[in-house]
Design a protein that fits this description.
With 364 residues, this protein is of the alpha+beta class. The protein has helices at residues 2-16, 21-38, 46-67, 73-85, 102-108, 112-122, 130-151, 174-206, 209-237, 248-287, 290-300, and strands at 307-311, 317-318, 324-325, 333-339, 345-352.
């Protein structure tokens, strides 16, 4: 096990040399921008600011690692986008009211929410599903879209916006600011975040085998983050000040910081599984013990239904006991055939399609 972990870590060190100059420059710019714009808030808020720096740095580092792998580049760039989305909120601070930057910071501050949701719901694929795209678009509208109306109005309910000197507002009743824009927008965000948590839970329950074990940490952490953010907003919407002791905001921030760790853990797990599959297939090709290969792959891929067949010729296959068998994949099954360099079939591996998400695990 230690040797396998060392092998995986060695692969990650190689990944670092594969990152092109553009992502490195972008990542460094994000970290520098985050530190520079949030530095004025350090006085009296050292712990909070330090946590935001660690979160941004973690997303940048993991994003660069993902860009150096064979995963779709969208995942690595999504990590960099989440890190960049944490920067505008630093402008919504009293230090920037005189320069009139706080409106920009206030409107763009919540963009880290849809950026994080898009990352978690996409990973490890290249694109979001139609439902996920609607969800992310809805979050953008319910957060930054609604804040455009908040900065243009005023009311009696605190909105967290540090207005610049002589900031104009539309001459409309305060009801629009306090209820239609602020509370309705926050309520819509709560609903969308809870729906995000439900989607993540569904992904875990509908998966199986190694896929479920790989997805579970990221899905659980993402769901906790979404639920904690929802609770924090609901406390404000319902004015439940007596629940100030509920650490929803702290839990949200800590779980958000754990998301890049979960991404990296999934990458390590997938690479370790791929190395184990290659090792067992190579050992079986030398010993001819396909029964041991079948048992080993069932353990590695966490799929008790996995089966291995040995090629007798181009069209004839036999199971580990030597009985004739078919390698045709069923509705929820997938089959990968290991071939020699000249294309001659050697071994066919059939498994539950829900148990193996990474298509690179089986083809050797």
């Amino acid at each position: 096990m230690l040797a396998r972990c060392a092998q995986v870590c060695s692969q990650l060190s190689v990944f670092a040399h594969r990152v092109s100059a553009v992502p490195l420059v972008v990542g460094c710019a994000i970290v520098v921008g985050k530190v520079a714009l949030s530095a004025p808030q350090l006085a009296g808020n050292e712990a909070f600011v330090a946590i935001t720096w660690v979160v941004a740095l973690a997303f940048v580092v993991v994003g660069l690692v993902l860009l150096a792998t064979d995963l779709p580049p969208a995942n690595g760039w999504a990590c960099l986008l989440v890190a960049a989305a944490t920067i505008p909120g630093d402008l919504n601070d009293p230090h920037y009211t005189a320069s009139y930057l706080t409106p920009l910071g206030y409107v763009l501050e919540p963009l880290y929410l849809p950026a994080t949701v898009a990352l978690v719901l996409r990973y490890p694929k290249a694109r979001l599903t139609p439902i996920a795209r609607i969800l992310v678009g809805g979050l953008i509208a319910a957060t930054s879209g609604v804040r455009l109306t908040v900065v243009a109005t005023s009311g009696s309910t605190p909105d967290g916006f540090y207005r610049p000197p002589v900031w104009p507002s539309l001459p409309i009743p305060t009801f629009w600011h306090d209820w239609v824009f602020l509370r309705v927008g926050e309520a819509a965000t709560v609903v969308l975040l809870l729906f995000t948590a439900a989607l993540l839970a569904r992904r875990v329950f509908t998966a199986g085998g190694l896929t479920r074990q790989s997805l579970a940490p990221l899905a659980v952490i993402g769901a906790i983050c979404a639920i904690a953010a929802s609770i924090d907003r609901m406390i404000w919407i319902l004015n439940l000040s007596y629940l100030h002791w509920v650490p929803a905001a702290l839990l949200r921030d800590l779980s958000a910081a754990a998301i890049p760790v979960a991404l990296l853990a999934d990458l390590l797990r997938q690479r370790a599984a791929a190395a184990a599959v290659s090792e067992h297939v190579l050992a079986a090709s030398r010993s001819g013990d396909t029964s041991a290969l079948q048992t080993a792959l069932r353990n590695v891929l966490v799929d008790p239904t996995l089966s291995v067949a040995v090629a007798r010729d181009i069209e004839t296959w036999a199971d580990p006991e030597g009985n004739p068998t078919s390698v045709t994949a069923g509705r929820d099954r997938r089959t990968e055939i290991v071939t020699l360099d000249d294309g001659t079939p050697l071994v066919a591996i059939t498994c539950d399609a829900k148990a193996v998400r990474d298509g690179g695990l089986l083809p050797i």
